[in-house]
Amino acid sequence: MATTLHAVTQIQLKAMSPGRSGKVREVFDLGDTLLMVATDRVSAFDVVLPTGVPDRGKILNQISAFWFQKLETPHHMISISDEDLASALGDAWDPAQLRGRSMLVKKCEPILLECVVRGYLAGSLYKEYLAAGGAEHEVTLHGIPLPAGLRLSDKLPEPIFTPATKAQEGHDENIDMNRAREIVGDVADHLRTLSLDLYRRASEVTEKAGIILADTKMEFGYDADGNIVLIDEVFTPDSSRFWPRDEWRPGENPPSHDKQFIRDYLETLDWDKNPPGPELPENIVMETRARYIDIYRAITGQEPVL
Prior knowledge:
Elements: E1 20-21, E2 25-29, E3 33-38, E4 43-44, E5 47-48, H1 56-71, E6 77-79, H2 82-89, H3 95-98, E7 102-106, E8 109-110, E9 113-120, H4 123-131, E10 139-141, E11 144-146, E12 155-161, E13 164-165, H5 177-184, H6 187-208, E14 211-222, E15 228-231, E16 240-244, H7 260-266, H8 282-300
Antiparallel strand pairs: 1-2, 2-3, 3-7, 4-5, 6-7, 8-14, 9-12, 9-13, 9-14, 10-11, 14-15, 14-16
Helix pairs in contact: 1-8
């Protein structure tokens, strides 16, 4: 890709064993804590693409940090400051690889449930709605009744909680609350209440910035004291669908300040959504980068550290 910007897709730290590698993040065990590093890798339809987006990981890291501090709910973040990270890592601290994209977090036991909240009809829910006949009559999806005649991008009567399985490989599966309780027990009901509350509070913030938070995915875990805390990432352009309020039109697919822009491009290709994924052209990469920076500025009112 002919650009002066460099995408950081691999992290190698001196005197540290390779950590746990996710689709986007690398996690290193520091003993009592973890180092979570957001790379510039991109995944779509649960496939890691061969092309990274420069600075994407920094935006994801820093916008999560903003929300962890803003929401005033228990979370796993300890710090993203260079001073704290350098102290924790010692000789392994490498600003060229880690600055702006790293977070020191508590060790937590993940709860194996994707906590999805939707305020608008979009994505997989819209496809399910149409398939169930929602255009003609009221339907029930994931145990939740939805009125007839909703259009793409319509605001739902109220935000809904549609959990999903947390797949280690392959695609997550949308489920209902009964299945969620089978997987994680009665804590599923608490997670539903907590997720809906966090979505409403975050939506109040984004609305003031002229941004619609259409839907989002959250993850939770148990800390060392057995408390439920927010983990991984939160209200980022990867985990959420952001629409500009002034460009939202029910019945249309609004322009997205999130990863949906990449998904929309991939849908135009002859790709079966199985590995390996296709390369992204430079114009898609740079437009994605610009959209991530724009959403960070809009929501936080600050400039990201790039």
